[in-house]
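We include the entry.

. . .
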Amino acid sequence: MGVEKELQSRSGGICELCGSSEGLVALEVAPSDGSSETSVYICSTCNTQIENPDSMDENHFNCLNDSMWSEVPAVKVLTFRLLSKLTRQDLVDMMYLEDSERAWAESGISSSPAVVHKDSNGVILQAGDTVVIIKDLEVKGAGFTAKRGTAVRNISLVHDDAEHIEGRVNGTKIFILTKFLKKS
């Protein structure tokens, strides 16, 4: 039986990460020996996201909350790597991996330190958090001032800059320095 057939049988014909049945492909989880034990069966959406990590949609990968409990080592390893890339340390800490699985998962993570966003009090911020502005801020180019005490809901993190987040104030999407925010 071929690897693709084994993966299809193991997954029940759905993506092993999100459960979709659209455009399923086999993905080898490096380092791989090409077998079904070191591969996962994923949909085209997950595959595109994994191949283009700079444009990953965190909302799509909410499915990792379920796949992190998979019995399949390759699925757990890929989930661990994706959660690490998305800086979801809270979920990474909940995962149970055998020592060999953890070594495999960590071998595929780049050694560059992850960008950590912290508010003015040093509290770590996550995408989707709600923060409060602690100082009146003039928003250049928009013609208004973001007032102290304004809640900014469902923030986005700027992946290459720990000092900025992105959020909506008065219906306008703006970048805000984390030193002027506190998590609520």
